[in-house]
């Protein structure tokens, strides 16, 4: 499986089920795909052990009114990009690291507790890395689509109908996380499918308390669960970022993009440069890139694309260190609440 250009159809459908319901039981997934639970569990074990797919839990970027998410472009000294990328990949606030084409060598997704923490991260953290020549920071002001919402679309309508109903969400309710909540989120960052018994043992809580806390975190969207796959094996190996500008009052263009552009993974409103919208798109091949651009132009004629960068290599995605093929090889706790000043 590691040597395959693309995962098998069954592997991709299992992953798709977990993209839609990351903690579904193997019996539930088996019912959707009409195969036995043992086969599903065996498939997932192979996918997980080879780093081809994984489930993580992460803190929501909007977990509190002060929480701050930013896209940071990094210009490295000549020959220093790889060393710098590997260093930054082990920092807890750096959720993702990509080597990109264009004027900047690296692109980071950074999450911190507040604006003051972002300032310390930039000045005391990145500012102390000898391999960095310059940075440019784009603060995210609104998230229209996140990578958690993108899926492989391998399931038909009948299979989707057999999926368990989604839990009821109450994202508008204010909720202050305590240390136990944070530890629970960090545990799920290592493996989002850890059982309740494993989690309760690690946290020193009863099974019922662990279940109650987990259900509350999911319902209030303080915890985001997501299933990822190695992009090179998923059938969507090409990734690009588009930096664009759209009129502030043109909400229709922005909200309509996900249903019109199948490869759209991320859509963020940002501030910090001429661009006020950042799009991350996936394509099945390099030949498809112009078609993606043409579909985007047709779907959003009022959108002006100012710059485009290709992802040459992803070294980290949402807390997971990746190998050259994009397979997960290690986990870094996404402790966005830690003090960023000491990350040098």
Q: In words, what does this structure look like?
A:
The chain is of the alpha+beta class and 344 residues long. The chain is 33% helix and 28% strand. An 8-stranded antiparallel beta barrel has the order 2-4-3-10-7-9-8-5. A two-stranded antiparallel sheet has the order 1-6. α2 crosses α3 (37-49) and α8 (196-203) packs across α9 (207-219). It is globular and about 50 Å long. The two termini are 38 Å apart.
Descriptive labels:
344 residues; 11 helices; two-stranded antiparallel ribbon; eight-stranded antiparallel beta barrel; single chain; alpha+beta
* Arithmetic mean of pLDDT: 92
Low-confidence stretches: none
Q: Report the strand count.
A: 12
Q: For the CA atoms, what is the radius of gyration?
A: 20 Å
Q: Which band does the percent of strand residues land in?
A: 25-35%
Distance between the termini: 38 Å
Fraction of residues in helix: 25-40%
Secondary-structure class = alpha+beta
**Helix run count:** 11
Strand order of the largest sheet: 2-4-3-10-7-9-8-5
Largest sheet: 8 strands, antiparallel, barrel
Q: SSE order, as H and E?
A: HHHEEHEEHEHHHHEEHEEHEEE
Give the topology, please:
Blueprint: H1 9-20, H2 26-33, H3 37-49, E1 53-59, E2 68-76, H4 81-88, E3 94-100, E4 106-112, H5 115-125, E5 132-145, H6 157-162, H7 179-190, H8 196-203, H9 207-219, E6 223-229, E7 238-245, H10 251-260, E8 264-271, E9 277-283, H11 289-299, E10 304-317, E11 320-322, E12 328-331
Antiparallel strand pairs: 1-6, 2-4, 2-5, 3-4, 3-10, 5-8, 7-9, 7-10, 8-9, 10-11, 11-12
């Amino acid at each position: 499986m590691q040597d395959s250009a693309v995962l098998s159809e069954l592997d991709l459908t299992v992953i798709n089920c977990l993209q839609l319901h990351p903690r579904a039981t193997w019996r539930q997934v088996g019912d959707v795909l009409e195969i036995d639970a043992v086969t599903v569990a065996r498939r997932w074990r192979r996918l997980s052990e080879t780093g081809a797919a994984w489930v993580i839990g992460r803190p929501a970027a909007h977990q509190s009114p002060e929480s701050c998410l930013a896209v940071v472009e990094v210009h490295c000294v000549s020959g220093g990009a790889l060393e710098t990328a590997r260093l930054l990949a082990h920092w807890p606030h750096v959720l993702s690291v990509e080597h990109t084409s264009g004027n900047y060598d690296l692109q980071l997704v950074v999450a911190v507790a507040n604006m003051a923490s972002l300032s310390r991260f930039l000045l005391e953290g990145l500012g102390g890395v000898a391999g960095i020549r310059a940075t440019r920071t784009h603060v995210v002001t609104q998230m229209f689509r996140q990578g958690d919402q993108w899926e492989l679309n391998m399931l038909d309508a009948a299979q989707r109908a057999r999926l368990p109903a989604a839990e009821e969400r109450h994202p508008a309710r204010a909720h202050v996380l305590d240390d136990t909540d944070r530890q629970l989120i960090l545990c799920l960052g290592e493996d989002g499918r850890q059982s309740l018994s494993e989690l309760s043992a690690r946290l020193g809580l009863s099974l019922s308390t662990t279940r109650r806390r987990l259900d509350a975190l999911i319902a209030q969207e303080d915890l985001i669960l997501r299933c990822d796959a190695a992009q090179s094996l998923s059938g969507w190996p090409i990734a690009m970022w588009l930096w664009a500008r759209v009129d502030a009052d043109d909400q229709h263009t922005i909200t309509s993009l996900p249903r019109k552009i199948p490869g759209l993974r991320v859509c963020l409103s940002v501030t910090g440069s001429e661009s006020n919208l950042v799009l991350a798109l996936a394509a099945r091949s390099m030949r498809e890139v112009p078609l993606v651009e043409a579909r985007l132009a047709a779907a959003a004629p009022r959108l002006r694309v100012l710059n485009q960068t290709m992802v040459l290599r992803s070294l980290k995605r949402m807390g997971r260190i990746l190998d050259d093929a994009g397979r997960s090889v290690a986990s870094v706790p996404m402790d966005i609440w830690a003090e960023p000043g000491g990350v040098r």
